Structure prediction request, 482 residues.
Amino acid sequence: MAPHICIIGAGVSGLRCATVLLEQSYNVTIIEARNRIGGRIAQSDQMGPLEVDIGANWVHSTGHNPIIELAKETGTPLHLWKENTLLVDGEGQLIPSSEANRALKQVWEILDLASEHSKSQGDHIHPAASLYSFFESSCESAVQCGDMTERERELVLGMSQMWGAYVGDGVELQSLKFFYLEDYDCFIPTNYQKIIARIATVPLAQGNMQFNTLMTSVEHRTGESCPVCVTTSDGNAQYFDDVVITTPLGWLKQHEESIPQLHPRITSAIDSISFGRLEKVLIEFPTAYWEYGSVDSQTEPDDVVSFVHWLSPVNTSHGNPRHWRLECVSFHAFEAPYRRNILLFYTFGDCSAHITSSIRGLEGPSRNEWLQVFFKPYYSTLPGYAEIHAPTRFLATEWCNDDFAGNGCYSNFQAGMTDAAQDVEAIRHGMPEQHIYFAGEHTAPFDGLGTVAGAYTSGEKVARRIIESNQSASGSINYKTN
Prediction:
C-alpha cells in the first residue's frame, strides 16, 4: 500500500509537494482552511474584468526559476520595469527627473554594495547593524569624498525607504548581517491565475482535497500504523504516514501549540525570523494624467513613468499622523493590451497596520472615502492632476487582517538576528524522526525567502525527502517515475 501523506495548506509549496508525491503514486490528502487553492496568491475582479493579483505579483530569482518556466508554458506575460521614476518632496514639489533617477540609481548601487558586504563580511557584522545604517555610512563616505552632495544624500536616504516595499517592514529594521538581493525582478502585468492553475493540475485531479478545513493539531503517536495524527476544527482525527506543514510563518508564530511536540530549536527559529506586513492599494483613474498626456495607447513604454516615490509629505490627512513615505508603480508602463490607468501603492510595517485596522469592516462608499482621504495628498501632487482626474475605483488588501495568512505577508530578517541561516535550516529540517516536515517560502534558501519560487522549490524538496526516506525504509522500492 502506498504511503498516505497529509499536506497542510494548498498554497504553492503544498501544491508542488503534492504533485511530486502523487506522480510517485503516493496517497495524498491536502487540508486547506480556505475555500480555494493558492494561499497568498489570489486575485480580485474589483478593478474590472482583468483580475488583478492581491497577493504575489512579482517574480524574483538569482538563478534558475521554475516560475519563469511556468510563465512561459502558460503564456503568462512578464514585465521588466524601466528605471524611470517620479520623486515628490515633502512639500509636494516634483524633483527634476534627472535628480530623481540619479538618486534611484544611487540607491540600487548602495543596495548592491550592502549585499556584497553581507556576503563577504557577514561573520564580522554586528547583529544590531541595519541596512539603513549602511545607507547612512555609505552616504556619509560619499559626501566626504565629494562623490555625493548634501542634496543627493537627502534624496538617497529618503528613497532608501523603498526597501520596505520589498520585505514588508522598514529599512531601519532590515538586518545588514543577513541581507541579500535577488538578481532578477519582473512583474506579472496580468495575474498568477494560469501559473497557479498549472501547479494545481495534478493535486486537483488526483489528490484528496479538503477545503474549509482548519488544522488544529499535529501529533506524532507511537504504536500506530500511521504515526501522525492530524486533528481539524470539526473534531475529526485523521492518521497519516507523514505530514507536511506549509502554513505561513506568521500562522506558525501564533499557533505553535498546534504542534505539541515541536522541537525547541524549531520553536526558537519560528520566533526569531520576522514576518513582514506588506499591503497594496490599487487606485484607478480616468486617465494617466501623470504622463503629461504625452503617451497614447500605441506608444512603446520606453519613457513612461514606472515608479513614483514620495518623501515624507507635510500636508497629509488626519488619518496619516506619521506622514508616511510611500511608493507606487504605474500600470500605465505596461505594454498594450495590459496598460491601465492604475497606480499600485505599496505600504508596509506600521503604515500597513494603520490602514488595514482603519478600513477593517468598512465597505462601499465609506471604505473608498477613507482611502481617498488618505491617498489624495499623494496622487494629487503628481503632474497634471486636476479634480477631473479623481479616482474611479479603489482596491485595498487586508493581509494584516487575514488570520490564515498569519496576519502579514512573508518572512524577513530583522536587525538583532544572530543565526538566520541556522534558523531557516532548523525549520526546513523539520522533525523527520516524528514524520513531521515543513515547507513554504520561510524554509527556502536565502535567495528564495519571501518568493513564489522559494515556496515552490521548498515543496518539491520536502517531497523528495519523504520519497527517499520511504525508499530507504522499504528496501529501495522504486515508485512510478515519469
